[in-house]
């Protein structure tokens, strides 16, 4: 189901004559600021800006910020109403690989300019940007600013559970990025608005956390379990109670494949699908490159020499027919892809030993591993990013593994170094895109980066146990080079010859990295 029947045309500028009239009648009242402003669908020649709230009914763009202070500046587009109370305006006839500034409202001397409202169009075709690098920031499970204690009898439903932790992660990234280029793309790995993915939770956990990022970089999200509300859940079994003794509504526990089954847990509201699908304008028709998917639940994007694919491990993956349709689309999309680098992201990790999410036990992870990892191997995917587990876990350069963790064999499934150990992806052990052992582009690095809002321990000693384990009990998936219960985010840099992924902690330090070379 495609929730995004979006505007595609462009309209001319609304005249600014009201400014002159207002100046004759007295001072103009201060403009009301919007509550959210963010970018979508940036291509070499077009872009979309979305906003909600405020009194602006159009957006204008220019290569120079000073041009937007010209009273009759012509490059403006009217805001078109979309779902969720948003307006969106489309910019057209842009130049590839150029910086642009934009404003909401009328141009002129009193225009409300904001230096953070800038973006860069990607270069055309399979080219690197003029600066030589595509710079991507990736966060997973970052939506904890709105997470509260469980409802009674286990909590008060009000007290913040992880206050300030998502901000810590952002500040760590900003410290790391202080002397580097602006973000080109902002990728979300799901669970970016706890606990039920309500619109108000998106506001508090996303729009109010990252305003300076999302004004300047298009947002590429994927659907997590907390984007799909919740369901009644037998939480008592986690604490040793008899089955059925403690059933409560719990966000993030829906296993439905139907977006219309979204339930925010509030009986006084009418739910009509997840706010995720009414907030974002996603390229279901191939507007940003790649093959049209026909749904906003999964899609592809080209940015310079990078091809990105967002898969839906939460909804489409739950139903065999929908899962196969997504797999067929992925094969078609990757078959048509000619970009230097291919990045895939979705929420549920095929390989993980997170505290509450073991990829040997959860069906969503098992299905993604069994059905999709062979496609990644066969069609040249370079890196895969997931959330769900609130930890940082990074695999070896690997392929051909679809079974349980106990069946993973380093010598069979991973690239090895000269000593016969798993190569690190660092220094002289950087991974070649064409595998040195197979002679094909059939190896992938899998990264779990679900600790952008909180960090849990790794998998405890007993399956299903969530309490009482110590660091000595932590398990590491045998496919992983490194596993850390540490908060942070990922920065991905793609040039014409290398792809480098770095895990950045809350202090701005690089904790782990790997490089793939062409």
Describe the structure concisely:
With 518 residues, this protein is an alpha+beta fold. 15% of the residues lie in helices and 23% in strands. The protein has two domains: 37-120, Immunoglobulin-like; 134-517, 4-Layer Sandwich (Purple Acid Phosphatase, chain A, domain 2).
Features:
alpha+beta, 15% helix, 8 helices, 2 domains, 24 strands, globular, 518 residues
Description:
- With 518 residues, the protein is an alpha+beta fold.
- The protein has two domains: 37-120, Immunoglobulin-like (Sandwich), CATH 2.60.40.10; 134-517, Purple Acid Phosphatase, chain A, domain 2.
- Helix content is 15%, strand content 23%.
- The protein has eight helices and 24 strands.
- The strands form five sheets. It has a seven-stranded mixed beta sheet with strand order 11-10-9-22-23-24-19. It has a seven-stranded mixed beta sheet with strand order 14-15-16-17-20-18-21, with no helix packed on it. It has a four-stranded antiparallel beta sheet with strand order 1-2-6-5, with no helix packed on it.
- The longest helix is centred in the middle third of the chain and has 17 residues, at 320-336.
- The protein starts with 16 loop residues before the first helix and ends with a strand.
- The relative contact order is 0.12.
């Amino acid at each position: 189901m495609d929730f995004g029947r979006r505007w595609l045309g462009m309209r001319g500028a609304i005249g600014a004559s009201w400014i002159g009239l207002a100046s004759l009648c007295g001072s103009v009242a201060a403009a009301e600021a919007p509550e959210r402003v963010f970018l979508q669908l940036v291509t070499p020649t077009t872009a979309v800006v979305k906003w909600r709230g405020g009194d602006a009914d159009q957006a204008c763009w220019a290569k120079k910020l000073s041009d937007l202070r010209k009273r009759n500046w012509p490059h403006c587009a009217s805001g078109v109403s979309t779902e969720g109370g948003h307006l969106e305006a489309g910019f057209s006839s842009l130049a590839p690989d150029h910086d642009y500034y934009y404003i909401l409202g009328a141009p002129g001397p009193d225009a409300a300019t904001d230096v953070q409202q800038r973006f860069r169009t990607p270069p055309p075709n399979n080219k690197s940007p003029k600066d030589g690098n595509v710079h991507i920031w990736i966060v997973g499970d970052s939506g904890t600013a709105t997470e509260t204690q469980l409802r009674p009898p286990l909590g008060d439903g009000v007290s913040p559970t992880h206050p300030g932790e998502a901000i810590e992660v952002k500040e760590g990234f900003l410290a790391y990025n202080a002397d580097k280029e602006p973000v080109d793309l902002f990728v979300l790995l799901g669970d970016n608005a706890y606990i039920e993915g309500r619109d108000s939770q998106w506001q508090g956990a996303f729009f109010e956390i990252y305003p300076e990022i999302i004004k300047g970089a298009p947002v590429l999200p994927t659907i997590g379990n907390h984007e799909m509300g919740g369901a009644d859940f037998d939480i008592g079994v986690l604490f040793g109670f008899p089955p059925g003794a403690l059933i409560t509504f719990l966000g993030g526990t829906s296993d439905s494949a139907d977006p219309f089954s979204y339930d925010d847990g509030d009986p006084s509201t009418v739910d009509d699908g997840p706010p995720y699908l009414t907030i974002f304008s996603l390229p279901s028709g191939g507007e940003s490159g790649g093959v049209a998917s026909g749904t906003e639940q999964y899609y592809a994007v080209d940015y310079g020499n990078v091809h990105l694919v967002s898969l839906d491990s939460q909804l489409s993956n739950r139903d065999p027919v929908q899962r196969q349709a997504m797999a067929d689309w992925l094969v078609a999309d990757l078959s048509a892809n000619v970009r230097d680098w291919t990045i895939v992201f979705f929420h549920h990790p095929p390989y993980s030993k997170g505290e509450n999410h073991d990829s040997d036990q959860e069906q969503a992870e098992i299905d993604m591993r069994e059905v999709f990892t062979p496609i990644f191997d066969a069609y040249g995917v370079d890196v895969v990013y997931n959330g769900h587990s609130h930890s940082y876990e990074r695999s070896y350069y690997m392929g051909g593994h679809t079974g349980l963790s106990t069946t993973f064999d380093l010598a069979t499934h991973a690239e090895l170094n000269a000593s016969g150990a798993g190569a690190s992806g660092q220094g002289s052990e950087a991974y070649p895109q064409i595998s040195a052992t197979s002679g094909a582009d059939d190896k992938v690095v899998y990264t779990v980066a679900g600790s952008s809002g909180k960090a849990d321990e790794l998998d405890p000693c007993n399956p299903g146990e969530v309490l009482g384990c110590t660091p000595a009990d932590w398990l590491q998936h045998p496919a992983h080079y490194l596993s850390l219960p540490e908060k942070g985010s990922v920065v991905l840099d793609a040039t014409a010859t290398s792809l480098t992924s770095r895990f950045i902690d809350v202090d701005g330090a690089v904790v782990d990295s790997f490089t793939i070379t062409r």
